[in-house]
Design brief:
- The complex is a heterodimer of chains A (905) and B (243).
- Chain A is built from ten helices and 53 strands.
- Chain A is mainly beta.
- Chain A folds into two domains: 2-128, Phage tail protein beta-alpha-beta fold (3-Layer(bab) Sandwich), CATH 3.55.50; 256-904, Maltoporin, Chain A.
- Chain A is globular.
- In chain A, 48% of the residues are buried.
- With 243 residues, chain B is mainly beta.
- Chain B has a domain at 119-198 and 233-241: Immunoglobulin-like (Sandwich), CATH 2.60.40.
- In chain B, 5% of the residues lie in helices and 39% in strands.
- In chain B, the strands form four sheets. In chain B, strands 1, 2, 10, 12, 14 and 15 form a six-stranded mixed sheet that branches. A four-stranded antiparallel sheet of chain B has the order 4-3-7-8, with no helix packed on it. In chain B, strands 9-11-13 form a three-stranded antiparallel sheet, with no helix packed on it.
- Chain B starts with a helix and ends with a strand.
- Classes of the chains: A mainly beta (905), B mainly beta (243).
């Protein structure tokens, strides 16, 4: 019956498939109401005449359906518009009209959908175009770049709205789409840039996207095609543009890691950037790649800052798990950073200063084909002392127990000499639109020295001093080739080196009356890790809805470790491990709504003489226009790990070690699944995950008197498994002057070590049941304000049952703490409030901003860890008859204000 | 000396340890020596960290040493609370001994094997001159199987001055020689150099300390803390000149 009525009116009147807004009904009733409404609209032409007098309108749309756009015009200007909802829902539009005649607006909007506009009795009727055009199928390929600087934009999204055909640009900003209608509209989106729609048959070889400063005023978390942070695009993946960071509260300078720590699944309560704790995994299980080279140490200043200058970074992709087969070598997560290529249009720069460092980045074009970016950062802490440095140093270094044998001292007593810095240099040479060469260089370093003298009971003068330095070096050369519209190749040679050299000396000068010779003790550790990688990645578009990626790589790691305790050298490694890796990955839209990605990676590791397989499956189902389901599973292997070593009382005692016949290869299996909901005013992302990690390594002994001849592994390492389960929720509002998000993580991480805790499971070091983060950002004229509140339930620690003493054969005694259970207690809950305000202004033709950040506004006394200290002497330096133990809460940062200034041209 | 000095302001940092987990708060210090009667076995409770009180002696407990299937009950001293065995039990090198403690419905156990007696212990001289910082006595012994040994100095002269700490600093070794340096000796007069054959568990006491993150509880007591260890020994008489 419905179809009959439908056909009747279609043939004899206008089409009944047209709808008059704003009433929306469904089903058979909807059609009937539509008929009545349509007739009413026509009969009420007088009213409509009055309403349509508003000829000029101003409206703005961003990535909404044509149907929604037309409805918005109707609602705002009370203009009757009749159109086919079903057809109009198929098209996505983005546009900005200011004082434009309404018919022109409608014509422009509907041209996208190959529709015509007719005005019948003051009703605008949108109907299928009377012109019949022959549609040709073609393949396109183009480069996407910044309109102002000419920089290519990697990982930009090129999509055909509603078709689910899309491609992402490669590192050189090139994308390809094959077998698409020449009338198709290609939507180009990139973080922090205005979306651009281009008809396929009018596509140029280069598409220029216009930066949109308004998008950088706020971090907006959206599904694909949106602004500064992309979340929910695929399982466990985040993409963001560091340019958005400067609105968030900072400690000194901006920090890319701190922004990631505000998202679910990434711990935000450790107050450090020394690597990311992702889904309960230690930071060494996160692969960090900068322009193709792996970095093994990613922080400055004992974790207070990440080692990356955010001004030198163009984009960051973070995989919290279930990463592509293209990446390997770590068991938890991958972070891919791409440095800026440089401004091709003009010389530009940015200079900033804060209480901790000065930083700058300069971009220039040496020729039409060659651009250079140089960026540097240098601490001023060794030149200009200030309260912020002293506060950070006291909290992060001295009172954390990281400095040898010095407890409850402060900055003044140590008089440290500390500095850090980093430098980025990148040359980009565009030989042609299809050939691109880049050379990227990076270095970072930290240096610390101090000396402390103490007199004990008039019989000994005790001096402790430390001299430590550590850092990274990275270098890569990348050649990118676009062979044709279907095939591209990227070849790279990358080298990175990490070094950590620490030396600690204790000297005892005895009173002459004792007749004792002076004594000197030395603790030193040198750890060097070199990584040399050759890699070729290929991407081949096998059909209009499938892509095949494949590649090979070879990584040679050499690790040297020498550790000296007094006159003994322990332990010593000279490892050389080679990994030959190959992978293939196939992405396919099985239907327009169902996307799959199947990957397989193989890794032959010579030290174990074994080939490790890593299958990966990714699935996404766009069940509704505003809802998609996603799921993934992956196996990962890790051949190199960082060992936490706390038996040496130096500042940076951890070391890297390769798996071999004694140290197992770490293996993980990751499951994740969730749903992403995208509404006009907000989006919601929910993801559950289970990660099982096998053969994790824990370093056991606290070295006291080590016999050089015995280096049996069982005395040094325990191996076991970890199971982590969790649920992550992100609710985000990304539009308007007020924006922000709420992030919640529920997780449980348990360790299973046969040789520990009687084989019973115990909470892992990074186990945290709840983490809740609220981010608020508000823009008012030239001001930006942000307010962040972070809450985390207590982390585990081992609470000892007590202490005991055992006599030894030589007449002395050995004191021990009696532990009954591992990680059996929880520290108090963590929470803090951070505030930031920034004022933007102009200096001539250049831009500047000044800001104030207050970290931990209400001075919450959060606990870093609980320490049990054995005291041999009393407060006056007198020897105690019996050792005693004291419990000390090592606190994290209290209220800490900082000021920054930035100038860009 | 060195060991004690190293413990000055020794930081005990514990936050996320990986540790073994005995279930009771009983501490055992049980040493048995080849060819010597069993005595001075101590049982205490764990000391509280917060109030720094010492551990208390354990009463109402049954303690046994089992050897070759025969269980010998130990007797607690009324004066110092230590446990000892009757003279009928002789400790022999190479034999296995098991310690059994029944306390508060708990069975606390440990095993040890008496190491072989050190062989061919010799010294290059018998007098050490403390006034010379470079003087030393080199002791040697046969150790083809790389067994653990520990050398100590025992003071035989009650009138000699003794530094408040221990007499001589050394660490367990799997080697076959040890130098007794004048710098490392803090006594004078007649003394003995005793070379102990020690067990794996005992040498771990020196190796493993629970003083930092990631350490394990030292010892070999199941369901408790502490150690049960057996020793063999050989002795050399030496003389230490002060000036």
């Amino acid at each position: 019956m419905t179809n009959f009525i439908f056909q009747y009116f279609y043939n004899n009147c206008l089409s009944l498939r047209f709808k008059v807004h704003p009433i929306i009904l469904v089903g058979e009733m909807q059609l009937k109401v539509k008929i009545i409404l349509f007739l009413i609209v026509i009969s009420l032409s007088t009213v409509a005449q009055h309403q349509s007098n508003l000829t000029y309108i101003s409206v703005q749309f961003t990535n909404i359906s044509l149907s929604a756009a037309l409805s918005r015009i109707t609602d705002k200007y009370h203009v009757p518009i009749a159109f086919n909802t079903k057809e109009a829902d198929k098209f996505i539009v983005s546009a900005d009209y200011k004082n434009m005649e309404i018919k022109q607006v409608l014509k422009h909007l509907t041209s996208i959908a190959q529709m015509d506009v007719a005005k019948i009795n003051e009703v605008f009727v949108i109907k299928p175009s009377s012109k019949t055009t022959k549609i040709n199928i073609l393949s396109i390929s183009a480069k996407v770049e910044d309109l102002c600087s000419g920089e290519p934009l990697p990982y930009a999204l090129a999509s055909i709205p509603n078709s689910k055909l899309f491609a992402t640009t490669n590192r050189q900003g090139i994308f390809s789409l094959i077998d698409i209608p020449d009338t198709a509209m290609v939507l180009l989106s990139y973080l922090g840039y205005k979306d651009t729609l281009v008809t396929a048959n009018k596509l140029n070889s280069t598409i220029k996207l216009r930066p949109d400063p308004s998008l950088l005023k706020e971090i907006i978390v959206k599904d694909q095609g949106s602004n500064t942070i992309q979340y929910g695009e695929e399982t466990s993946k985040i993409t963001f543009n560091p340019a958005a960071l400067d609105r968030l509260p900072v400690l000194g300078g901006n920090d890319v890691f701190r922004t990631l720590q505000l998202l679910p699944g990434i711990s935000g309560t450790n107050e450090t950037s020394s690597g990311l704790v992702v889904r309960g995994s230690s930071p060494d299980k996160n692969l960090v790649l900068l322009d193709g080279y792996s970095l093994y140490h990613v922080d400055h200043f004992y974790g207070i800052y990440s080692a990356f200058n955010s001004k030198a970074i163009k984009s960051i992709q973070m995989y919290k798990g279930n990463f592509s087969a293209k990446y390997g070598g770590r068991s938890s997560s991958v972070m891919v950073l791409t440095a800026k290529d440089g401004n091709r249009r003009k010389f530009s720069g940015d200079i900033g200063v804060n209480f901790v460092d000065v930083n700058a980045v300069f971009e220039l074009s040496l020729s039409k084909k060659l651009t250079v970016v140089a960026a540097g950062r240098r601490s001023i802490t060794d030149v200009v002392e200030n309260y912020l440095f002293r506060e950070l140093f006291d909290k992060a270094v001295v009172n954390s127990g990281d400095v040898n044998n010095v407890n409850s001292l402060d900055y003044k007593e140590l008089n440290p000499n500390f500095s850090f810095g980093d430098f980025n240099l990148k040359l980009n040479y565009r030989q042609s639109e299809k050939d691109n060469f880049t050379l990227s260089f990076y270095s970072s370093n930290d240096n610390l020295s101090y000396e402390y003298i103490q007199n004990i009971e008039d019989f000994v003068e005790y001096t402790t001093s430390e001299s430590s330095r550590w850092g990274n070096l990275g270098l890569s050369g990348i050649w990118s080739k676009q062979w044709n519209k279907k095939m591209s190749t990227q070849a790279q040679v990358a080298f990175s080196s990490y070094y950590s050299n620490t030396k600690l000396e204790d000297t005892y000068v005895f009173n002459d009356t004792l007749g004792l010779a002076d004594e000197e003790y030395l603790q030193a550790q040198n750890n060097n890790v070199n990584d040399f990688t050759i890699k070729i990645d290929n991407q081949f578009q096998t059909s209009k809805n499938s892509i095949l990626s494949f590649g090979i790589a070879n990584t040679l790691n050499t690790i040297n470790l020498s550790s000296i305790l007094d006159d003994e050298v322990f332990p010593v490694f000279n490892q050389e491990g080679n990994q030959f890796q190959f992978y293939s990955e196939y992405s396919l839209f099985i239907t327009p709504k169902v996307e799959t990605r199947l990957g397989l990676r193989g890794n032959y590791f010579n030290l174990t003489n074994h080939l490790y397989w890593e299958p990966k499956v990714n699935f996404k189902y766009n069940i509704l226009p505003w809802m998609n389901l996603k799921a993934s599973w992956a196996i990962n292997n890790q051949m190199i790990s960082r060992i936490l070593r706390l038996d040496l009382f130096t500042s940076n005692p951890d070391f890297w070690i390769l798996a071999d016949k004694d140290i197992p290869v770490i293996n993980s299996s990751q499951w994740a699944g969730g749903v992403h909901l995208d509404f006009n005013i907000a989006s919601i992302d929910i993801e559950a995950f289970i990660t099982n990690t096998y053969d994790e390594v824990e370093y056991l002994p606290s070295l006291r008197n080590f016999d050089v001849e015995d280096k049996s592994q069982e005395q040094l390492y325990a191996t076991g498994n970890t199971e982590t389960k969790g649920l992550e929720v992100l609710i985000e509002k990304g539009v308007g002057n007020y924006s922000g998000w709420i992030s919640y993580t529920l997780s449980n991480s348990l360790n299973y070590f046969d040789g520990l805790n009687d084989g019973k499971p115990f909470p892992s070091r990074f186990d945290q049941r709840h983490e809740f983060k609220v981010v608020n950002m508000y823009n008012y004229k030239k001001w930006n304000f942000s307010l962040i509140w972070i809450y985390g339930s207590g982390k585990p620690y081992s609470s000892p049952e007590g202490s005991y003493s055992l006599s030894t054969l030589d007449g002395s005694s050995i004191n021990n703490i009696a532990y009954s259970l591992i990680n059996n207690e929880r520290l108090p809950d963590y929470h803090r409030l951070d505030l930031s305000s920034t004022y933007n202004f102009k200096l001539g033709k250049t831009k500047a901003k000044v800001g104030l950040s207050i970290f931990n506004l209400y001075n919450r006394k959060n606990i870093k860890y609980r320490r049990f200290s054995k005291i041999t002497f009393d407060e006056d330096g007198n020897l105690l008859n019996n050792d005693k133990y004291v419990v000390t809460d090592v606190l994290l940062l209290g209220v800490t204000p900082s000021v920054f200034f930035n100038w860009s041209f | 000396m060195k060991k004690v000095l190293q413990s000055i302001l020794f930081l005990v940092a514990v936050s996320c340890a990986s540790l073994e987990s005995p279930d009771s708060s009983l501490v055992v210090e049980a040493y048995i020596f080849e060819n010597k009667p069993i005595k001075n076995i101590k049982l205490n409770t764990v000391s509280s960290i917060n109030d720094n009180a010492s551990g208390e002696q354990i009463m109402n407990v049954e303690v046994y040493i089992q050897n070759n299937g025969i269980r010998h009950q130990l007797v607690q001293s009324a004066t110092d609370g230590t446990f000892s065995a009757s003279s009928s039990l002789t400790i022999k090198a190479g034999e296995d001994y098991e310690l059994l403690i029944f306390y508060n419905d708990l069975e606390i156990t440990a095993q040890t094997t008496v190491p072989p007696t050190p062989k061919k212990l010799l010294a290059n001289k018998d007098t050490l001159n403390r006034s010379s910082s470079s003087d030393f006595i080199r002791t040697t012994w046969n150790n083809p199987d790389s067994l653990w040994h520990l050398g100590v100095i025992s003071n035989l002269d009650p009138a000699s001055k003794e530094f408040p700490f221990n007499n001589f600093f050394s660490v367990p070794t799997r080697g076959n020689q040890l130098e007794v340096s004048s710098n490392n000796v803090s006594i004078a007069g007649d003394a003995q150099f005793i070379l102990y054959g020690i067990t794996e568990e005992y040498q771990k006491l020196y190796r493993i300390s629970s003083s930092s993150i990631g350490s394990t509880n030292a010892g070999n007591i199941s369901n408790g803390f502490g150690i049960f260890a057996a020793f063999s020994s050989d002795t050399l008489n030496i003389y230490i000149k002060e000036n």
